[in-house]
Amino acid sequence: MTKMPEAIVIESFTYRYPDGTPALSDITLSIEHGQKVALIGPNGAGKSTLLLVMAGFVKGSGRVLVDGLEINSRNLKKIRTCLGSCLENPDDQLFMPTLFDDVAFGPLNMGLPAEQVRARVADALQTVGLGQMSDKAPHHLSAGQKRAAAVATILAMSPKIITLDEPDGSLDPRNRDNLMRLLGSLPQTLVIATCNMNFAAALADRAVLLDKGRIIADGAAEEIMSDAKLMAAHGLEIAAKK
Amino acid sequence: MHHAYIDKFAYQDSAIHRLDSRVKFLVVLVFTAVVISLPRTSLSILVCYAIGPFAVLVWAGIPVRFAFKQILLVSPFVLVLALSCPLYDRTPVAVSFGPFLWRITTGWMRCFTILAKFVVTMLALIALVSTTRFNNLLAGLQRLGLPRLLIVQLGFLYRYIFVLIDRAHHIVRARAGRKLRNLGFKTELRTAASMLGSLFIRSIDTAEHISIAMQARGFDGSWRTLWALHTHQSDWLFVLGAACYISGLYIFIKPILQ
């Protein structure tokens, strides 16, 4: 029986910003399918850059494999069908004139037939609770709705892996709880970059602590996020009990 | 923040709203071309041409006050052009309206005609934009054969103009919160330049993020949409009515009024 490839494998990856500032140093990380991983760390730790590395937007030295495929120009289309990236600012994610067009953008680029695209859009919007809003323009949505819509744009592509950059940013507690429930119900592999330890603790079973572009700790989410000394040393707070 | 500057009434429902966007666009295009081509001595026929878009606005439930506010917003550019006419063209001319007769210059005549044409064509344009959702308008333009790149650009413009307005508001508010005294013209100008610079840099940043979001969802340079449009009997009736109105005024009423 052939072994299922791991969702993400990063081996000795190093990247510097164009001005020479080190962004990621010697990152080695492996994420299995179905895992919910929180990338935690202070601002500027390299969390967002690491998510961009996983999606093939940042090239450095080292090897990156997504679902067994090495990131290179030949595999990029397959990789982006398999890994969906949700950016930090939903206004960047929602660029089409209506919600329907935005959610349909990915499936259409996958070459799916029109009927299948319509079905996927309807399903994705229903899942995030925006089923009745497909005709709305993104600028008519609230912050919470925009965030949910951004997740729908990814869900419509049915990726195996979803990366989310600060998904809880600027959300009120009710919208944050709604988003947590939604993300918690997804069967996909999740990689979530966040500074919010409670949000991370509620969703993730594994935590990877990054600081100054290096992996400081990697292990069970509850264990890492309850280590007051470790958290304080890296400018973070401990998570409240689940 | 909820914005409704441009498409405030486009989400309403009326017989005009339900018309095919291609039909509305083509009618407005022909109407505008005819109005612009009218000679400068045709002020009275322009009044007749104004009735059409005015009636459409009323029928579609668009407040006329809103339309005139929009016209006022863009009027400074045309005002400068129109008001400069009397300065360089001072040939006297006699104008009659029924039993009344008075003398003005051709410059003033030209000025009034430019302003009247501007108001009439703007009314038509506002009627189009206020009764058509922007995505339907884009779909119509795409079907009419406009280059895809232009459609994409227009789509982005519509989507991000609101984000830019929002950011500009935030920057202006941040400045107002810390501006406790009159800073003088030079400092104000320097501050305004910095604010514009900041807006520009953030726009570039946004553009980079949008590019990432598009590529992450498989964008390869080809623009694919599921925009569907269908014409109905009402669309053809509208075209027929508009054609009769535009050509009828031109062929039968214009010679009488000139």
Characteristics:
heterodimer; A: 242 residues; alpha/beta; Rossmann fold; six-stranded mixed sheet; 10 helices; 10 strands; 25% strand; globular; B: 258 residues; mainly alpha; 2 domains; two-stranded antiparallel ribbon; 8 helices
- What is the overall shape of chain B? flat
Mean pLDDT of chain B: 88
Strand order of the largest sheet of chain A: 6-7-8-3-9-10
Mean pLDDT of chain A: 91
Helix content of chain A: 25-40%
Write the element-wise H/E pattern of chain B from the N-terminal end onward: HHHEEHHHHH
Number of strands of chain A: 10
Q: What is the gyration radius of chain B calculated from CA atoms?
A: 23 Å
Give a count of the beta strands of chain B, DSSP E runs of length 2 or more. Answer: 2
How does the helix and strand content of chain A classify structurally?
alpha/beta
Query: Into which percentage range does the β-strand content of chain A fall?
Result: 15-25%
Q: Write down the CATH topology of chain A.
A: Rossmann fold
Indicate how many domains the architecture of chain A comprises.
1
Number of distinct helices of chain A: 10
Q: What is the element string of chain A, with H for helices and E for strands?
A: EEEHEEHEHHHHEHEHEEHH
The CATH H-level superfamily of chain A is: P-loop containing nucleotide triphosphate hydrolases
Strand content of chain B: under 5%
Commentary on this structure:
- The complex is a heterodimer of chains A (242) and B (258).
- Chain A has a six-stranded mixed β-sheet, with helices on both faces.
- Chain A has helices at residues 47-54, 76-82, 90-93, 99-109, 114-127, 143-155, 173-185, 197-203, 221-225, 228-233; strands at 8-16, 22-31, 36-40, 61-66, 69-70, 83-86, 161-165, 189-194, 206-211, 214-220.
- In chain A, β4 (61-66) and β5 form a beta hairpin.
- The mean pLDDT of chain A is 91.
- The N and C termini of chain A lie far apart (38 Å).
- Chain A has 242 residues and is of the alpha/beta class.
- With 258 residues, chain B is mainly alpha-helical.
- Chain B has eight helices and two strands.
- Chain B is flat.
- The A-B interface holds A 52, 55, 57, 77, 80-81, 84-85, 87, 89, 91-98, 100-101, 104-106, 108-110, 114, 117-118, 135, 137-140, 153-154, 157 and B 2-4, 7, 133-135, 138, 155-156, 158-160, 162-163, 206, 209-210, 212-220, 222, 224-227.
